[in-house]
Design brief:
Largest sheet: 5 strands, mixed
Number of strands: 5
CATH architecture: Roll
Shape: flat
Order of helices and strands: EEHEEE
CATH topology: 2,3-Dihydroxybiphenyl 1,2-Dioxygenase, domain 1
Number of helices: 1
Radius of gyration: 13 Å
CATH superfamily: 2,3-Dihydroxybiphenyl 1,2-Dioxygenase, domain 1
Strand order of the largest sheet: 1-2-5-4-3
Structural class: alpha+beta
Amino acid sequence: MLFENPGAAGTLNHLGVEVGSTDEVAAAAARLAEAGVGTRDEGQVSCCYAVQDKVWVDDPDGQRWEFYTVLADAPELRPAGGCCA
């Protein structure tokens, strides 16, 4: 999934990879850690009308990526982790 941010210096805010479960988010985090890549975990975060578990990583060019799973609907739009900026 691609997320655009027209107000940013470029046209791309970040890239998201939706997976099917929290276990898959944890597996992505483990693979990244094993490769020596720093990550930032967010659990049970409410973002963009959804409650999610996610892990963030920056690629070598500085582009932000998130691996996430949707756990439930959120009752309102609540920006978190920069996803709805």
